[in-house]
Amino acid sequence: MPRKPYVALPAPVRHGCGALAGGRLLLVADPVHDVLVVHPEVAVQAMLRTFHTSLAATGEAS
Question: Which of 17, 24, 34, 56 is paired with 46 by a 20 to 30 Å CA distance?
């Protein structure tokens, strides 16, 4: 692992996923479909918020 664990993404990729230069991203490998999925930070926050809201609604949150 390099000292600075950064991955440089070309501008068209960043723009395609709604990410800003220097923004935090979650990269997820999907080997079944042979793709790398790029999630901007706001998308991860929204997914986590939805997930935890659904847990609370079903009583599964502890």
Answer: 34
Extents of the domains making up the chain: 11-58
How far from 47 is each of 5, 9, 15, 32, 40, CA to CA, in Å? 24, 22, 20, 22, 11
Question: What gap in Å lies between CA 34 and CA 48, rounded to an integer?
Answer: 25
Q: Give pLDDT tens digits for 9-61.
A: 888 988 888 888 888 889 999 999 999 898 999 999 999 999 999 988 887 75
- Between CA 23 and CA 4 the distance in angstroms is 15
